[in-house]
Specification:
Elements lengths: L2 H12 L4 E4 L4 E6 L3 H11 L8 E3 L6 H4 E2 L4 H9 L4 E7 L4 H4 L4 E5 L4 H10 L3 E2 L14 H8 L19 E4 L6 E4 L5 H8 L28 E4 L1 H13 L4 E6 L6 H4 L3 E5 L3 H18 L3 E5 L9 H11 L8
Parallel strand pairs: 3-6, 5-8, 10-13, 11-12, 11-13
Antiparallel strand pairs: 1-2, 2-7, 3-7, 4-5, 5-6, 8-9
Helix pairs in contact: 1-6
Length: about 325
């Protein structure tokens, strides 16, 4: 990215247009967070329900008082430890337009660490509302060409910052109402947050009325259906599907690959055994398998006995979710 691209991005944002830009998590569709008309363009472009809130990205914590109010003292602790970085805090809404918050009296705030995002935010000087740069409910983009695949020339500018270093969306922690609730797991883990806050954080399944980005049952999904399989059933499931002439692609952990795949001409991606590296490669791998044109993507479930895999499991479970058929 050169300075002329950055200057153009800032001009477009001030003009109420949408700019795609990289963060360390995924690429985002950015609009001026103070401009309701520009924000509505994001909803329209993504096909996103207007009650599904966006996250406001800031350059530094000095700007937070404008967008949020009644800010808990613990925000300073969290910011020193995790910002800039992949943590979104849900706070009471200050001057954030209701279009950003999905009509709620709470707002999501994040300070991204990606150098391109930081340069953009500092030069723009205000908040940028930005969900992931993909059609609503689909696989998030971790490379600039993924954004172009989704939207083509309907976005005037895509800032290229290379592949995203984290690859999974930010951890979302709500601090509204004197409660700490983990709404979405991410690369910053619950135990890390609890160690910083010196308090117990409630789980994502806790009963809360707060809506947050990426928390619907079906999300992060490719066009091709996904099925998750435990390792002990994987070979049997592959055999059953291929004998039934179902065209499949397989995603499995690199230390648990199966010899039958090559023999059955099944496209196969081996994933890293590190949860952080797996998360970094997940969306690009799903996009690769989605392009092949198979009937089903069969994915080996990663280990379930470790908090480190929680964010990966969350994304895979939502990607594989099947909506109940509607009864007319």
């Amino acid at each position: 990215m050169n300075q002329s691209d950055l200057d153009l991005a800032v001009d477009l944002l001030h003009d109420g247009q949408i700019v795609a830009f990289p963060t360390e998590t995924v690429y985002g569709l950015g609009a001026n967070a103070s401009d309701p008309s520009a924000i509505n363009k994001i909803y329209a472009l993504k096909g996103r329900p207007s009650n599904h809130p966006l996250i406001i990205h800031l350059a530094d914590i000095s700007q937070i008082d404008y967008w949020a109010r009644n800010i808990p003292l613990c925000v300073e602790q969290l910011s020193q430890k995790f910002w800039p970085g992949p943590l979104t805090l849900i706070l009471e809404r200050g001057n954030a337009p209701l279009e950003v918050t999905g009509g709620q009296d709470s707002v999501g705030i994040r300070i991204p660490s990606h150098p391109v995002a930081q340069k953009l935010l500092k030069q723009f000087g205000g908040g940028i509302a930005a969900p992931s740069a993909n059609r609503f409910g689909r696989v998030s983009p971790t490379q600039s060409d993924h954004v172009y695949e989704e939207f083509g020339d309907s976005i005037k500018l895509i800032l290229d910052g290379g592949s995203c270093q984290v690859g999974l969306e930010s951890t979302i922690l709500s601090l509204v109402g004197n409660r700490a609730i983990l709404l979405r797991p991410g690369s910053i883990r619950k135990s890390d947050l609890e160690a910083t806050l010196q308090t117990t954080i409630e789980s994502p399944s806790v009963n809360t009325t707060i809506r947050a980005s990426g928390t619907l049952e079906s999300h992060y999904a490719p066009e091709t259906p996904i099925e998750l399989s435990k390792i002990e059933h994987l070979n049997e499931r592959i055999l059953s599907l291929t004998e039934s002439r179902v065209r499949i692609a397989v995603m499995s952990l690199s230390h648990r690959t199966t010899e039958e795949l090559a023999q059955k001409n099944v496209h196969h991606i081996t994933m890293p055994i590190s949860p952080d590296n797996y998360g970094k490669e997940l969306y690009a791998s799903l996009r690769e398998l989605d392009r092949i044109g198979v009937d089903l993507i069969l994915i080996e479930k990663p280990p379930e006995d470790s908090e480190a895999w929680l964010a990966v499991h969350d994304r895979l479970t939502r990607a594989a979710h099947k909506d109940e058929p509607k009864v007319s």
